[in-house]
Write a structure and sequence with these properties.
The protein has helices at 4-34, 40-64, 70-100, 109-136, 148-171, 179-210. The radius of gyration is 18 Å and the shape is elongated. It contains six helices and no strands.
Length: 211
């Protein structure tokens, strides 16, 4: 990327990268608590990262869309909208972590492995999305050697598969969790899948508009 508008695209990419990094921190910390490996400090870390995510989204939607460059403005609108949704979904995951932490309940053993696998892969995908968008907005705007969108789409398909496996674990061999727990965990799975989907969508628009 070269020229004033390309500079603005790099600024938008940097903001999107900051939002994705904050989302990864918040999601990862909350997932540790949900899996039984975190404590109250990790809940606080998730909350602090959520504030950073909201600040980055606000900059995307206010500053990014006010730019004179059309490509940068459109990229900021898409990225801000998708990252705003990621923030809402991470907030739901964090609230579940907080509700499970005080009593030490955690995730029911019957679905613990499925939940932690899904949460781990979603967190890794958000981190990889940040790396891709930062590379896109780096010096010269050089994309990675391999197609970054193809890689992210493959990871996204894997997460969708994990989410289906979680649903199957919830209903396999009769009820192994209470109905309220099953509903909460099913919603948790959808939050993880949604975080992944919107993170990839934000990156997709930036990569395509920067190319």
């Amino acid at each position: 990327m070269t020229g004033p508008e390309d500079d603005r695209l790099r600024e938008v990419a940097a903001l999107c990268g900051a939002a994705l990094r904050a989302a990864r921190t918040a999601l990862g910390a909350a997932t540790e608590v949900i899996g039984g490996d975190g404590d109250g400090e990790r809940v606080k870390a998730s909350d602090a990262a959520l504030h950073e995510l909201r600040d980055a989204v606000e900059c995307l939607l206010l500053d990014g869309t006010a730019t004179a460059g059309l490509r940068a403005a459109v990229a900021a609108a898409h990225a801000g909208g998708d990252m705003g949704r990621v923030g809402e979904l991470v907030q739901q995951v964090a609230e579940m972590a907080w509700s499970w932490h005080p009593g030490g309940q955690g995730v029911p053993p019957a679905v613990h492995a499925a939940v932690t696998a899904l949460g781990g892969e979603a967190t890794e995908l958000v981190e990889r999305a940040a790396e891709v968008v930062e590379r896109t907005g780096g010096p010269g705007g050089a994309p990675p050697d391999a197609d970054p969108l193809e890689e992210l789409d493959l990871r996204l398909a894997g997460i969708s598969g994990r989410q289906r496996s979680l649903d199957e674990a919830l209903v396999a061999d009769g009820p192994r969790t209470s109905a309220p727990d099953a509903v909460d965990i099913a919603l948790l799975g959808r939050c993880y899948e949604g975080c992944a989907w919107h993170s990839v969508a934000a990156v997709r628009h930036l990569v395509l508009l920067a190319s």
